[in-house]
Specification:
The complex is a heterotrimer of chains A (274), B (222) and C (62).
Chain A (H helix, E strand, L loop, with lengths): L6 H4 L3 H33 L13 H28 L2 H33 L7 H22 L3 H33 L14 H33 L4 H7 L5 H9 L15
Helix pairs in contact in A: 2-7, 2-9, 3-4, 3-5, 3-6, 3-7, 4-5, 4-7, 5-6
Chain B lengths: L1 H17 L1 H22 L3 H24 L4 H5 L2 H7 L4 H30 L5 H27 L6 H28 L5 H30 L1
Helix pairs in contact in B: 1-6, 2-3, 2-6, 3-6, 3-7, 3-8, 6-7, 6-9, 7-8, 7-9, 8-9
Chain C lengths: L3 H7 L4 H38 L1 H7 L2
Helix pairs in contact in C: 2-3
The chains are: A mainly alpha (274), B mainly alpha (222), C mainly alpha (62).
């Protein structure tokens, strides 16, 4: 990891990542809140009720973003897993591990909101529809990743095994989706779902886009925060981590950590010159 | 390169077959799970017939999962696995030979037995042939997928239950296509498409999953 | 477009579904935020303790 001229590689050093996240996250929270407030205002006070579904359709404003985030985060998880397996960049495993709980939560929330949307519009909380079923399986994939990572005593090995699982899962997601859809179409039981409805009103679309932005930014912020904690905990013995925990990580400490010449737990007398 | 693999295959098969216990346990498990369905659902032939393909396939998937749990465990504990990893043959081929041996001795009996169980649940004629055919194409994929899980959970706490959580979601496409083929046959609909897709899955899994198994084994062995 | 707060809360008769969905999302995100914040605090506290007692930290492991 000696690519000091390539800025991307800079953040593979946990110390640099930590500082970047520390600078980024304070902006992300208000941005997410702003988007959410604007989106909720548009969604509840500007967008008119749907002529068929009445006000129940407003669940869409959180259902679509959570469903999206679930899938997107799984792809990201697999991508970080692949990076970790190929280049053994520790930071990639930290990121993958930080993504998993948020991905699982988003997938769960998309199932929950989907059920509550389905109840008034289709008359049932749950159908074994292609999308619902494959989302449920996606949730299991997230849980499997987390369980495998947690079950291994050796963090490095556990991370690599879990990364491999994430990749196999990602290859399988389309196969699962198509097979489930194929299965569902052949069984043509309840044909309640017509996703391509009439085109959305502009205010609805605006509300939806704002909410999607809010969820993206929220997910970014929370994942970065979790990754920070994970990075600190893994590097607990290093100078930079202890300085960072005390809130006074200096530039030199960071650079020393990035080049990898920091000793295992040197004395910390030098700190305090922020 | 073929000869050592052949020897490994023979060794694994004879190891499994001489301990007849393992084969019997898996077969008995398969039969018992299928027996539970009529007991839980009721003896009406019509009802049983509708669930028959699913019941046989679920039982086969669970039996495969249970039997694969220990695919690498013994070799790992006594160090054989490390020797195999150091051997000149690619680890992926070694893994493939092990999975093949496992399937021949523990998967094939289920395929052979399945028409009898399908008959007991009310399937007839061509449906039984489709059932056995779908299992013949599908269970090797299950074995390969399960082997990945077995390799990943080697030496990890809570192996069996964890492996089920990891692997059962990946079984879904095989299960859908396998049981689907029999369902099609029951409605006198063309079932060939399902079987071709199962064959396609097998064709994709056969070269790729051994690589994944080898990768998982290397992670454990490092 | 709403006739007062009561009408807004009633959501055209779909109150249970709409508020159930939004409520669960709010709860989930809130809970996640609290858990992550707590984890962060714990890790930082542990590291600060460690840097104060280096020898003890080395013995006790992680």
């Amino acid at each position: 990891m000696t690519g000091r001229s390539i800025p991307w590689l800079k953040f593979t050093a946990p110390a640099n990542f930590y500082t970047l996240a520390q600078r980024l996250v304070p902006w992300l929270w208000p941005a997410a809140a702003l988007c959410a407030v604007a989106g909720l205002y548009m969604g509840f006070f500007v967008a008119p009720p749907d002529h068929q579904q009445g006000d129940a359709y407003r669940i869409l404003f959180i259902h679509v973003p959570t469903a999206w985030m679930g899938m997107l985060l799984y792809l990201l998880l697999a991508a970080y897993g692949a990076i970790f397996l190929v280049w053994r960049i520790k930071m990639a495993d930290i990121m993958a591990r930080a993504i998993a709980p948020t991905g699982a939560l988003m997938t769960f929330l998309s199932l929950w909101t989907g059920a509550l949307w389905g109840a008034p519009t289709w008359g049932t909380f749950w159908v074994w529809d292609a999308r619902l079923t494959s989302t449920l399986i996606l949730l299991f994939l997230f849980l499997g990743y987390m369980a495998l990572h947690a079950a291994s005593d050796d963090r490095e090995k556990g991370g690599r095994a879990a990364s491999l699982l994430a990749i196999i899962g990602a290859v399988n997601v389309p196969i699962i989706y198509f097979s489930v859809e194929w299965w569902y179409n052949l069984h043509q039981g309840v044909s309640v779902m017509r996703s391509d409805g009439p085109s959305m009103a502009d205010s609805m679309l605006a509300a939806l886009l704002l909410m999607i932005a809010a969820f993206w930014i929220y997910a970014g912020a929370i994942v970065l925060r979790r990754a920070q904690a994970e990075a600190l905990s893994r590097e607990a013995r290093t100078e930079w981590a202890q300085a960072a925990a005390a809130g006074r990580l200096t530039r030199e400490q960071r650079e020393r950590a990035a080049v990898g010449i920091e000793g295992n737990r040197p004395p910390l007398e030098s700190g305090g010159q922020t | 390169m073929v000869r050592p693999l052949w020897t490994l295959l023979q060794r694994d098969i004879s190891l499994i077959v001489t301990r007849r216990q393992d084969v019997l346990t898996v077969v008995a498990f398969f039969v018992i799970v299928i027996t539970l369905f009529p007991l839980a659902i009721g003896p009406e032939p019509e009802k049983l017939r509708t669930i028959a393909p699913g019941a046989v396939w679920v039982a086969a998937a669970l039996a495969s999962l249970i039997s694969l749990d220990r695919l690498f465990a013994d070799d790992w504990r006594d160090g054989t696995l490390e020797q195999l990893a150091l051997a000149p043959q690619p680890l992926a081929l070694t893994a493939l030979a092990k999975v093949l041996a496992h399937w021949l001795s523990l998967g094939l009996p289920l395929v052979i037995l399945s028409p009898a169980l399908g008959y007991a649940l009310g399937l007839q004629g061509i449906e039984l042939a489709v059932l056995a055919g779908s299992l013949l194409l599908g269970t090797p994929v299950l074995s390969l997928l399960g082997a990945v899980g077995a390799a990943m959970t080697l030496g990890v706490r809570g192996g069996g239950a964890l492996m089920a959580l990891l692997i059962l979601p990946l079984y879904v496409p095989v299960l859908i296509l396998g049981a689907g083929a029999v369902n099609e046959a029951m409605f006198a609909a063309p079932y060939q498409a399902h079987l071709s897709l199962l064959g396609a899955l097998l064709a994709v899994a056969l070269p790729l999953l051994p690589l994944a198994i080898a990768g998982a084994l290397r992670i454990t062995l490092d | 477009m709403w006739d007062g707060i009561g009408d807004f809360l009633a959501m055209g008769g779909y109150a249970l579904y709409v508020w159930g969905a939004f409520g669960m999302v709010a709860l989930g995100l809130l809970l996640e935020g609290i858990l992550v914040a707590r984890r962060r605090r714990q890790v930082r506290a542990r590291l600060q303790r460690q840097s104060r007692r280096p020898a003890a930290a080395r013995n006790q492991g992680e």
